Amino acid sequence: MCRLNSIENFTALQERLIAESHPDTPTIVIPAGTCGQASGALNLVLTAQHEILSRGLQNRIRLRVTGCHGFCEMEPSVLVEPKGTFYPKVDPAGMRRIIDALLRNDVVQDLLMADGSSGRNYENLGDLPFFRYQNRLLLSQNEKIDPLEITDYVKLGGYAAFVRLLEHNAPGEIIDELKQSGLRGRGGAGFSTGMKWDFLAREKNGKGKYLVCNADEGDPGAYMDRSILEGNPHSIIEGMLIGALATGADKGILYVRTEYPLAIKHLGTALTQARKFGLLGTNILNTGISFDISLIKGAGAFVCGEETALMRSIEGRMGEPRQRPPFPVQKGISSLPTLINNVETWANIPVIFRIGAREYASTGTGDTGTKIFSLVGKIKHTGLVEVPMGTPVRELIYTIGGGPSGKVGIKAVQTGGPSGGCIPAELFDIPISYEGLSRVGSIMGSGGMIVMDENTCMIDVARYFMKFLMDESCGACYVCRKGTQRMFELLDDIAAGKGSLEHLDLLEELSLTLKDASMCGLGQTAPNPVLSTLRYFRNEYLEHIEHKRCPAGVCKELISFSINELCTGCMACVKACPEGAITGEKKQRHSIDQDLCTRCGACRSVCRFDAVDVQ
Questions:
Q1: Separation of alpha carbons 131 and 384, rounded Å
Q2: DSSP string for residues in 153-170
Q3: Cβ neighbours of residue 160 closer than 8 Å, sequence gap 6 or more
Q4: CA pair distance 267, 148, nearest whole angstrom
């Protein structure tokens, strides 16, 4: 790998890489992001490498190890190009059969899944509803790139948009085109990215400016940013390079939480390779423009997702927010003008300047472009979903997600992370947009989407998120520190059957106080889970308060378990009970000792005959 010393050198390299590629050669693609590795993808990689090398197949079959493709539930999976054949849940034996089939120019029709169940292959990713109804502007690149090889990214047209803009060097035109694209920040607030860049560009400062990628993804159940960082790190670097060109920034920072070791590894490699290519550092491609990016690891504090707290953490201080103004673009890191965008926002920048602002803006209804969601919870198909803005919530849950994972229906979906709201099933026709979600008491957030079925207690959900926010509050302002604590205590009382109607009035009063008086977004949005559940599921609160009953059978103090006549005496619940509260002979109906039962629900989760009742 040699340093490129001119724009012409880069263009020549890109043309050579494209000419030397072999798109018709069968290629085994193994997604090995964090989710894939946890499911055994590295064993598939080792098996494929051994088979290809030991059998001398290097010129007949290629292997590409990539980041996550999005269908995390089906990991470890294999994609075979150029046909696009998709094999879910593959084990090493299945990997060997796939290679044998490739040599015959065939597919494996009866491949067993890694868990031993019978599966099927799909001739093309588009055959799966999970992929068919998405618009994968960003995630589709993960399939085609080895994140540890910059040449894979360059071969796909990577850095070409930056080099073209570098050659023309017209910052004002870059910002104008970004404004025309309509891109809004994907970190949650939804502020116009073009306007934000314009503010920084107008700041005159002889000491320099900062660009920051906020990769402190802390929402429970959310991993969209992690997937992009692991699978396509160069898209972030190129986005920041274009941002530097447009705003005059000379310093960049990637702020990543320490809990993302694979993302940190891939980012570190990508930064090193970009510098060796001459795309980062001083005098980029001999144009006189200098911009470099530092990688900083955060300690995993949720509040550091807030801009001003993040800047303090970067400076080596405790991550606490500060009052605004001054805004970061006026006075940020080390008192220098600073612009902060999140991972998904930066990843959209190269796409916009590759396909053009007009084409990008034509995607989506209301808001432009696509949005990635982590679709998790009580749903058949979990994973990362990328859809155009304006797509109805119902399409994500039922068309792409496949509907409920169990026998009971879906009750609600929680969007926007811990500070988001719970949307009831009857409102699933609302479009996914910043304003649309806000109208029903929720937020876009960074893209978390947790599906809940009828066995979910909404008071328990509100209590869970309030506990999370209470623990993650930095404590800098009294309203948030004590308000979240008191709201959690009230919810805890209600879940334990100790609540009163006055608790509901106090919850609403505290919610409004937090929204009005908290210093930062954490406190201002913390009441959303409570307010939305009070708004749409008030009857559940009343059941807990007036009848001391949890309709979903979740709150331990208000329920009891019993075994009905459907019991076959299979002994599964006896073995699963951690307290030894279940007794009975084999093939005879069992019984539960209520004095020993802790209401953990283990018996209910293992019973295959619906023999465990909860009241």
A1: 10
A2: HHHTTTTHHHHHHHHH--
A3: 14, 154, 354
A4: 9
| Whether residue 510 sits in one domain with residue 464 | yes
Report the run of H or E that residue 523 belongs to, with start and end: helix 521-525
Looking at the structure of the chain, the number of domains it has is 5
Q: Could you tell me the residue range of the domain that residue 564 belongs to?
A: 560-614
87 bridge partner residues? 78
Task: Strand 85-87: give its sheet, edge to edge.
Answer: 62-66, 27-31, 78-81, 85-87
**Does the residue 205 lie in any domain?**
yes
What is the structure's pLDDT at 122?
63
The pTM score is 0.93
Helix (H) or strand (E) holding 211: strand 210-215
**Is the same domain home to 586 and 542?**
no
pLDDT band at residue 1 using 50, 70 and 90 as cut-offs: low
Angle at 492 between CA 487 and CA 494, to 5 degrees: 100
Give the span between the Cα atoms of 192 and 273, in whole angstroms.
31
Q: Are 124 and 83 in contact (CB under 8 A)?
A: yes
Is residue 12 a part of any domain in this protein? no
Distance of alpha carbon 346 from alpha carbon 213, whole angstroms: 7
The yes-or-no verdict on residue 114 having pLDDT over 60 is: no
Integer angstrom CA distances of residue 72 from 224, 466, 519 = 12, 28, 37
How far apart are alpha carbons 86 and 544 in whole angstroms? 48
User: pLDDT digits over 462-471, tens only?
Assistant: 999 999 999 9
Contact yes or no for 122/85 (Cβ under 8 A): yes
The DSSP line for 269-331 is: HHHHHHHHTTSSBSSGGGSS--BEEEEEEE---GGGGSHHHHHHHHTTS------SSSPTTTS
**Do 412 and 371 contact (CB within 8 A), yes or no?**
no
115 confidence band (pLDDT: 50, 70, 90)? very low
In eight-state DSSP terms, residue 111 is: P
Sign of CA dihedral 433, 434, 439, 442: positive
C-alpha separations of 509 from 505, 506, 525 in Å: 6, 5, 14
- Express each pLDDT in 469-528 by its tens digit: 999 999 888 999 999 999 999 999 999 999 999 999 999 999 999 999 999 888 999 999
Q: What is the pLDDT of residue 395?
A: 96
Q: Which region holds residue 90: left if phi is over 0, alpha if psi is between -120 and 50, else beta?
A: beta
- Return the CATH number at 157: 3.40.50.11540
